[in-house]
Predict the structure.
Amino acid sequence: MSARPVSLAATALASALLVSACAAPAADSPATSADRPWDEVLAEAEGQTVDLWMYGGDERGNAYVDDVLAPAAADLGVTVRRVPVADTKDAMRRLLAERAAGEDEGSVDLVWVNGDNFATGQEAGAWLCGWSDDLPNMRYVSDEDPLVSEDFGVPVEGCESPWHKAQFTFAYDSARVTDPPATVAGLLDWAEANPGRFTYPAPPDFTGSVFVRQALYALSGGAEGVPAAFDEGAYDELTPALWERLRDLAPALWREGRTHPRDQVALDRLFADGQVDFTMTYGPATLTELVEDGTFAPTTRVLSVEDGTIGNASFLAIPASSPDQAGAMAVADLALSPEQQVAKADPDVWGQFTVLDIALLEDDAAHAFDRLPDSPVVPAYDELSRNAQPELSSSWVTPLDEGWRREVLGRP
Amino acid sequence: MTRVVRTAGLVLALLWLVVPLAPVLVWAGAERWSFPDLLPRDWGVSGWREAASAGLPLALLRSLVLGLAVAAVATPLGVMTGRVLGWRLTGRPRMVVALLLVPLVLPPFAVAMGLDVVLIRVGLHELVSVVLLLSVVAIPYTAYTSATAFARTSPELEAQARALGATPRQARLRVVLPAVRGSILVAALLAFLVGWSDYVVTLLVGGGQLVTAPVLLGAAASGSGNDATVAAMALATVAPPVVLVTVAALRVRGSGRTAPADRLPEPVPDHERMR
């Protein structure tokens, strides 16, 4: 029931956008909170209920919000109500509808968001802006961190506050892959040399789409070779080699590349069942639990990629239509506090990488991060993010997804 | 010969319904189950525990309330429409049928997408909007179910009751309605199922205020490694409707035997005596 044709969803979203473009009132003047003392925000927040819409497919993420974040928010007098959705696009549909209707008593107060969905909301003027820089806990976030100041190439501009960092990760079963490749290009070669043992979800699935961008970097001499903002000339110059490589690779994929897993869940299942030897995820935090609960073999390891993988950050954004903006800011600031960030980074809790700069923390807080237990599967963030590459701007995503469908899937 | 064919058909139809549920049944009792094992290596109830801690009991309760609310709105309206259609009380039955078909032809997703903006602008409470919208989806089912029942029942029944001195209200409520009550039960059940199993309208139009079992299930099913939890949720979501349908099927058969709807004169004294 969660599976809906993506094209339908995209059309619907586009039409919602169109409606909102015609009917929405002029974008709100950025944040009423700009120079408001934080005490005043907290006082207003007290007694509010914050509806946090977030992807609900990660049991530990749900448990962290319910058991750690929500009780801490209750101490501030703010009730957190988690609304689980199968896809963040469901939250976007609701809030774009509210935007189109000119509603200012909306039912979405906070959204876990990044990339495409953030850009969509930004285009529609659906986010409250100019607030996140004023959060007290932003002092622990580095000004120079490009992952936090831009979201898939879209400037954040105080419209969302960082929550965690993620790193695109390949995982393999070390019992079956004894000689793992060391680069992304090497991984493609490995796939060719081991027919039927590798595959990737078909774009426009989120994970499949990152894989294609990762392959584009690998074949274009890294992130430096690809302009971050979309550029027709660069697309025409760079992609033919990418499509050719992926076309050549296709016959060596699982089921001769005639079909692809629908999404990461499907790929994970193939990997868990031993039908393929690699899986990939933008949320390596989940790997620890998947191994722990026996879904993945204990011999599962994270592939260390010399040329680095793509990294991103995800955020909490407040819709302009939210009636509980002060409460939402209080929760966003709480989520950014060193205590919450360290609790969330514990592999036994959720294992999400922090957005804080450890160098900016007070000693106690910095020690708390040092004392975090290691995950038996996932390396520490600094190791995982070595040579990390920035995401391409979200304007690249659709042309690449379309190109893949036309040039790789459509021309066997 | 036809008997063999009929039995085979029945068995195939049952298999078609039950086979897809088999892995769900097994997963709901599994702790660990990976390829290529035919059966889980460890059995347990962790799926049920996780589902409960994710809020399944409350979600089921919300689904129940939503289903009942939709049935309460869609059944009376459907029965009224069904009476008009079944007894040909309108000169333009085609228009009524066409109107009824609209919600069936348009996918609920499209209806929700178009109407959510309107409903927000109108300013109705989210939960009222959900019940109204789902009732619109459910009315075709309730209307057609009761239309067939009315078509099988002669309009003379009402006339006879009136001739015997019943007021129009009495004739409808105490004579006609009991004669078609089996079908009304089925109609209410169908409307209940529309509310019970909806995802899109509940989430988008309901603005997340009503996290029902399907909403919870949809979110859980979108992640990896949740198979046991998802199976437990799926089973808990599927079981009540299956039980209800079975009970209703048995009851309708029973009532059909005791009160044949098309033998006209008898029902009146029968039911009069029962009161």
Observations:
- Chain A has two domains: 6-163+312-378, 169-309+390-409.
- Residues 6-23 of chain A form the longest helix (18 residues).
